[in-house]
């Protein structure tokens, strides 16, 4: 396992930390900029399934730790990796940092996974920013890999 390799994506979202944190916990909001379906709200010690219907893909998400308005620690993917979502209140809004680590791949496979994770989490943050700041649903995830 590649413990020294990690992905980090970040974005300032010009909204209060409570609003931004809720957007990642509550699937009614998260489905506006990321996955299309969830079996429930993120809760510490629970697992939910996220689904991207347009791609026919599902992922089981284990929630290891939640610190309200500060941190969400999860494990998901195949092979599973750790994904942390950190929220920091700032003068102009909320800084969201997504960190992914614990990759099982090596060599070229690891490089591809790091690239995919970096691009994917950046796209999620871009979509979240547009949705929370401007009420715009950009469909970035759906349009990233159009099927037809």
UniProtKB/TrEMBL annotation:
All copies of domain Activator of Hsp90 ATPase homologue 1/2-like C-terminal, residue ranges: 16-133
Regions crossing the membrane: none
InterPro entries, A to Z: ASHA1/2-like_C, START-like_dom_sf
One protein family per Pfam: AHSA1
CDD domains: SRPBCC_CalC_Aha1-like_8
Similarity comment: Belongs to the AHA1 family.
Name used for this protein in its record: Uncharacterized conserved protein YndB, AHSA1/START domain
Source organism of this protein record: Chryseobacterium oleae
Taxonomic lineage: Bacteria, Pseudomonadati, Bacteroidota, Flavobacteriia, Flavobacteriales
């Amino acid at each position: 396992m590649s413990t020294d390799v990690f992905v980090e994506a970040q974005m300032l979202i010009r909204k209060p930390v409570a609003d931004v944190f809720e957007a990642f916990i509550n699937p009614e909001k998260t489905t506006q900029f990321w996955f299309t379906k969830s079996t429930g709200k993120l809760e510490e010690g629970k697992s939910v399934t996220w689904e991207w219907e347009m791609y026919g893909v599902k992922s089981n998400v284990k929630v290891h730790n939640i610190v309200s308005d500060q941190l969400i620690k999860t494990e998901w993917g195949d092979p599973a990796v750790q994904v942390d979502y950190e929220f920091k209140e700032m003068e102009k809004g909320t800084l969201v940092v997504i960190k992914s680590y614990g990759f099982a791949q090596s060599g070229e496979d690891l490089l591809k996974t790091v690239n995919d994770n970096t691009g994917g989490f950046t796209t999620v943050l871009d979509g979240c920013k547009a949705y929370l700041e401007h009420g715009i649903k950009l469909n970035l995830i759906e349009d990233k890999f159009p099927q037809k």
